[in-house]
Specification:
The chain has twelve helices and twelve strands. By secondary structure, the protein is α/β, with parallel strands linked by helices. A hairpin with a 2-residue loop joins strand 11 (about 310) and strand 12. The strands form two sheets. An eight-stranded mixed β-sheet has the order 6-7-8-3-9-10-12-11, with helices on both faces. The protein binds adenosine-5'-diphosphate, iron/sulfur cluster and magnesium ion.
């Protein structure tokens, strides 16, 4: 593989545990995926599946009792887990930024939005004090906030939820990072505003040449926005593939269930949610974590977690229904199917 083919971020065997009184709980369990230059990877799964912990782990912002217990985070070929904290502070915001779910709590109520954008620029030495306010207006214009030159002096509470989310996107973009992770960026918003924010993210992605990790529990959002999809269940990635393959031919029973539960998701199927809920991560069944809810489970499912297998070009899943070539940890999916 040439350097040009090297993904922007390669997450390898990432494991993040919470040390709780009852024992360590693996919120992210041996997770591997890659984000390529210029693509949008959708990370999807029900609430509690480990999506936010994955993003926070990539930023190395896991708070105790959580800790990253293993794996590698290769960003532009460099393992973020080996950086000292000072170097990591240089990466956060400047190379990789994270847009949190809740736009109200992510902004500081006592500073104007212009000051908060300017601060993001100054922290990374991207603008002097005098340049920063002009750049803040430019960024507000980029995220299509009307009348940016005067809104820049507003405090967060003076803005609507949708406008606050635009400000957070402006802050995330301020230092021109290569990777933006957006954690449920539209979940707290009204449906019409959701569509506008997704449009904006798509525009920003092409205008700023970003790669985007779009985290959502909503496969409908993924369908409209992502190039590839990683489906997460109980701390593990259970299926990855191109968005079209995942939507037209979902293979993992969990992905099928997610798809059947979105309106218009699977033609001819009845709209229904997957029965049951994500099991407690501290007490997962010994085999496939989805087995207690799986309509297709059979005898091997209870023994040990299924391996990752290649099921099509760039498409892989972890399920005993598919017994093709198990992936070696360092093999690319396409190598295994050729
Ligand atoms: N601060 C915490 N303390 C203990 N456990 C946590 C904490 N944060 C997350 N977890 C565990 O990690 C799991 C995944 O959480 P999260 O990544 O927030 O899920 P998602 O974003 O997919 O909804 C939770 O179900 C919980 O078991
Ligand atoms: S491994 Fe078995 S229980 Fe798990 S998703 Fe596949 S068929 Fe269902
Ligand atoms: Mg979350």
């Amino acid at each position: 593989m040439s350097d040009a083919d090297e993904p922007l971020l390669r997450v390898e065997h990432l494991t993040t545990v919470f040390d709780l009184p009852g024992g360590p709980v693996p919120a992210v369990d041996d997770v591997s995926f890659e984000i390529r230059a210029g693509e949008t990877l959708g990370l999807v799964g029900e609430s509690g599946s480990g999506k936010s912990v994955t993003a926070v782990s990539i930023m190395r912002l896991v708070q105790p009792p959580g800790r990253i217990a293993g794996g590698r985070l290769l960003f532009k070929g460099r393992d973020l887990l080996t950086l000292d904290e000072r170097a990591m502070r240089g990466v956060r915001g400047a190379d990789i930024s994270l847009i949190f779910q809740e736009p109200m709590t992510a902004l500081n109520p006592v500073f104007t939005i212009g000051d908060q954008i300017a601060e993001a620029l100054r922290v990374h030495g991207r603008a002097s004090r005098s340049e920063a306010s002009a750049k803040a207006v430019e960024l507000l214009e980029a995220v299509q906030i009307p009348d940016a030159a005067s809104r820049v002096r507003d405090y967060p509470h003076q803005l609507s939820g949708g406008m606050r989310q635009r400000v957070l996107i402006a802050i995330a973009l301020a230092c021109r990072p290569a990777l933006v992770m957006a954690d449920e960026p539209t979940t707290a918003l009204d449906v019409t505003i959701q569509a506008q924010i997704l449009d904006l993210l798509r525009d920003m992605k092409s205008q700023f040449h970003l790669s985007l990790l779009l985290i959502t529990h909503d496969l409908g959002v993924i369908a409209e926005t992502a190039d590839r999809v990683a489906v997460m269940y109980a701390g593990r990635i259970v299926e990855t593939g191109p968005v079209r393959a995942i939507l037209q031919d979902p293979l993992h029973p969990y992905t099928r269930g997610l798809l059947a539960s979105i309106p218009g998701g699977a033609p001819g199927r009845r709209l229904k949610a997957i029965e049951g809920s994500v099991p407690s991560l501290g007490a997962l069944p010994p085999g496939c974590a989805f087995a207690p809810r799986c309509p297709d489970r059979f005898e091997p499912c209870a023994t040990q977690p299924p391996p990752d297998v290649a099921v099509g070009p760039d498409h892989q899943t972890r399920c005993y229904l598919y017994d093709r070539v198990p992936l070696k940890s360092d093999a690319r999916p396409t190598d295994a199917v050729r």
